[in-house]
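Homework-ish question, so no full write-ups if that breaks the rules, but can someone show me the predicted structure for this set?
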Amino acid sequence: MRIKEHPILVFEQKNKLSFRFDGKEIYGFEGDTIASALHAMGYKKLSESIHLKRPRGFYCAIGNCASCNMIVDGVPNVRTCITPLRNGMIVETQENLGEVHVE
Amino acid sequence: MCCAKTAAEAGQTCLIIERNSRLGGQLVKQTHMFFGSEKQYAKTRGIDISNLLINDLNGLEEKVEVMTDATVVGLYPDKVLTVLQGEKYVKIRAKAIVVATGASEKVLAFENNDLPGIYGAGAVQTLMNVYGVLPGQDVVMVGSGNIGLIVSYQLIQAGVRVKAVLEAAPTIGGYKVHASKIKRLGVDIKTSHTILKAIGKDHVEKIVTVRLDEAWRPIFGSEEEMTVDAVCISVGLTPMGNLLSMINVETKYISELGGLVPIIDQNNETSIANVFVCGDISGIEEASSAIVEGYLTGLVVADRLGNRHPLYHELMKDYHSQLENLRSGPFGEKIRIGLMKMMGGKDKC
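A: Not a homework solution, just the prediction itself:
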């Protein structure tokens, strides 16, 4: 959900950006981070804890805590709360420490 | 920014390395007006102060270089920094370093405190005021310090219901003026109450609150359920000194300052010569103090490197007295005790 009216701030309607999240085609807007776009669409779970597989969302939203790490375009451990959303991104829930495949 | 400003005015070249895409740190989400005196932009909103400070650097482009979207990932004792900027990894050698990394939000221990929908109060502020996204519809705030109170008000401004503010202590932590503002809007500030657990499958759906006795022990039988879709944790901040620990700067645990802080002298220099700090990294305070500390440190650093500001003594005196002023009064007591403990620690070393 997005703020429609605010006594102090003005949120202009910006260009729509579409991206994929776990196979679903969804969208956000220019100026969004990956996490803010997901949150606005109602997706709060971004990753799973490594051992107990508990659901995790973001906590700090400024790139400190690593709770929002996801796989973005195949790259694991991307801090989605500070990574700007781009058209056509492929975003996946991260369920492990992150694997890097070196060719 | 403040540090670079006075240093550059004294003739010192500097480089600002910022991990965000814009300068201003956490001011960019602070829609409330500041307190203090006019010198620290009282009655101006944080978001506007951020722009004022950026404008202050206009005209100093020859002296101040700015790198954004750049994270300092390493700091070495010979004052070499390694910086990651996108895919680029660079090494920078400096004559002096000022670390102004601020603080991070503390977490609170309770059952299921890792459920999505449980956020730091600052995170919610970022989500709402920077990205225009609502954290939920029904929110509970845990902690009634100034951040908890101010963010509660900002949640209401954004159209969110604040179901309650929980405060474990018997009295409200923040300024009365902030508390009254949200009380007038019908928010229940429950003192001697805390969150016992969160309930939910993939995200928080409910919480259980509990009343505390004088010794902060939960009172059995006083548990109550509250339906919320977001929980804001506002239980203080802790200095972010990760970079300083890479070069073994001497530190001390001072709870009044928010945790582990570098031991500094009155010119904000750490135990390593020419490594300085300013802002919340050396103790949690208001942004107003961080601004003044920046100006002060800028003068000192420039002077150390051979560029004395023409008004050095005058300005130093002014900044010291501004800081003293900001730290006076009952709300500055914690800072004063904390700083005294720090000085005490230095004598022993």
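Now go work out the reasoning yourself. Hint: The two ends of chain A are 41 Å apart (CA to CA).
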